[in-house]
Amino acid sequence: MTDSTNGRRGGAPERHRGAVTLRRESIPPSTADEKLLDSHHRREWKTKDAWRALRILSEFVEGFDTLADLPPAVSVFGSARSHPDSPECEMAAALGAALAEAGYAVITGGGPGVMEAANRGATEAGGMSVGLGIELPFEQGLNDWVDIGIDFRYFFVRKTMFVKYAQAFVVLPGGYGTLDELFEAITLVQTKKVTRFPVILMGTAYWSPMIDWLKGTLLADGKIDDGDLELIQLTDDVDEAVQIIVDADAALAEAQGNR
User: What is the pLDDT of residues 175-196, one digit of tens each?
Assistant: First the structure.
């Protein structure tokens, strides 16, 4: 969802809801996800949820149709709140460029901060830059470096697109949304719901305390095992991150060729 005022007469707030643009008093107080998940209006479930199912289906169709012809891609996650001159944004821009040079499209949430930096790096290096936006009451719209952009109403549809069209996840410093994407990716790989692919954390100073907690608490208490920790790779080196992805692709192609 988009609440931005750039480049519009009077600075009117604006929200994108799928193909629809809403401004000023037309902006509703809640999002489509909020309405779908609200358990306080049970009386509407039989009358409205059936129509919502068609809307959800249409979002899947739009995403599948738009992204089906993407080249191999990598999903990059990180904070929308990071300043352009922050270390993580500089790293994201370098990563986007390196991925583009290696032949990968870059997929982000399409917002500002780390996402914009990764999109910019990919675009400036001549690669394909994709932004998958979401209807939120407090976030800006798709950044200017996105070549292909889709605005989604529903988080779970958007999440499907991040996974379906990615050969790897690279996660830079971020907040709740970034952590959500990170742990969902790890869970999908751990439970073999997706073909095993790299999940790379970039920003060792930022992520090391979390890794220590995983080892000292979850692993020590038997909630995960050593193999689960190996699903995560940690680095500050852009070239190393890209090489991990390239090597994983080559190993997967070899394994599939031997079947």
Answer: 999 999 999 999 999 999 987 7
